[in-house]
Amino acid sequence: MKKILILLILVALIPLALSQEDITIYAGETKTINYTISNLANEPLTYTVSLSGPIAYFSSKGIYLDVYPKILNLNPNQSAIVTLYITARKDAKETGSYAFSLDISAENQTISKTLIIRALRKYPVYISSLSLSKYAIYPLESLKIFVKVVNVKNEIAPNYKLTITISKDGKEIWKRDLITDFIEANSESEISQEFFAEKYQEAGTYEVYVLLSDLKGNFVDDAKTKFEVKPIVKLPEEFTEKEVKYSLLSAYVKIKIKNEGNVKSSSFYVEERVPLFMKDFFKPYVNPSEEKIEAGFITYRWLIPSLEPGQTVVIEYEISLWQTWIGLIVIIIAFIYFFRFTFRPALVKEIVKEGNKLKVYIKVKNKSKEIMKNIEIKEEVSPMLKIESFIGKEFEEKKVGKKRFLIWKIDELKPEEEALVGYRAEALVEVASITLPKTKVEFTDEKGRVRSLESEK
């Protein structure tokens, strides 16, 4: 029974043992070769799988070999797959043809398959590294791309073509084609290129792809990496630009707000604040979304849903000025009137009656900002009065025709100075029937102009 079992095992392994296989692997490749093992015996068997040969030598050249699985438990008439893995690094060196043995054992019986394996290089060069100076940048920043190409042979490598492409979401946005210099034997060459992110460079992840090919366009090697352009939402605090133009009857205002970032902005408000009295003069080209009144001002707000990178929104309005001009004229006139009657010399005349006696007080006050000079106060005396004495400064009596005048002369009055003069008189008739003429004052201002004042009574 045992012999029969061994015979059956040998029969199962004969197809594997009878053939020799030649295998060639190239640098940068990985090969998997499958072998089918079947148990033709009448009972379960355990198979041990192993690979022997110059495995360590191949490893030193950058080629790695292994088999899997190494143990198989198979029932009668059951089959399984044994896989041979061969991986050659990109920098793998060429080897000659070497024999390896794939051994399968069961019940102290071993069947071997001879594998003749060799490693070759299609090209003497490969991309040993691809790196970036930065892996995250903002718009208006740059990064450098560094590519190292190695020549593994003991002879100078010819020129090759290097294509560097940057893409986002499958869309190419940047590309450079370069021709490498000759590369010395067993040495490397570094190539660098700079990528500059534009002002509105879209935020997101970008792929850098480097393709190395010969001058006929045949593929040699490639490499990939990624970097990120960071998002910026950059809106001005107030506005990007504000233009104001004036004409006689109106003022025109134009406000520009631009998204200087590289991503779409969220919604925001544009505000303009004007005095409340100008509310009826405000004429927007586009009606504002909101209005708010506070502290004597009215605030207009326009809602801007969003702005794409580089997009600008414009707010325009006019303010009618003719009403303002009228208001200013009224204010100026009122100011002039106020100034004129507030800051000018004042003449006040007061009459005090006591029976048939009269006291007349005349006060001149300099309320202007200039000195009053050569002041002459002239009081016409009613013929119904008999002058008894003076009050304050003594007067000079003068007749002009049938009229009689009391005259006081004062050299000058400085600003805020005043002079009080007057007289006492006796009425020759009923006091109530006497009407006194108005008092007049003449003086010279600092510019030499003669000015006059007249009392109200």
Any overview of this molecule?
With 457 residues, this protein is mostly beta strands. The protein has four domains: 119 residues, Immunoglobulin-like (Sandwich); 105 residues, Sandwich (Immunoglobulin-like); 84 residues, Mu homology domain, subdomain B (Immunoglobulin-like, Sandwich), CATH 2.60.40; 112 residues, Immunoglobulin-like (Sandwich), CATH 2.60.40.1170. 10% of the residues lie in helices and 55% in strands. The protein contains three helices and 32 strands. A five-stranded mixed beta sheet has the order 1-8-7-3-5. A five-stranded mixed beta sheet has the order 10-16-15-12-13, with no helix packed on it. The longest helix has 21 residues. The termini are far apart.
Protein traits:
457 residues; Immunoglobulin-like; 4 domains; five-stranded mixed β-sheet; disordered N terminus
Structural class: mainly beta
Characterize the largest beta sheet: strand count, sense, and whether it forms a barrel. Answer: 5 strands, mixed
Strand content: over 45%
- Calculate Rg over CA atoms: 57 Å
Number of DSSP strand runs: 32
CATH class of the largest domain: Mainly Beta
Overall morphology: rod-shaped
CATH architecture of the largest domain: Sandwich
Count of discrete domains: 4
N-to-C terminal Cα separation, in Å?
Answer: 160 Å
Which regions have little confidence, pLDDT < 50, spanning 5+ residues?
1-18
Strand order of the largest sheet: 1-8-7-3-5
**Number of helical segments?**
3
Mean pLDDT: 88
Task: Classify the fold: give the CATH topology of the largest domain.
Answer: Immunoglobulin-like
Percent helix among the residues?
A: under 10%
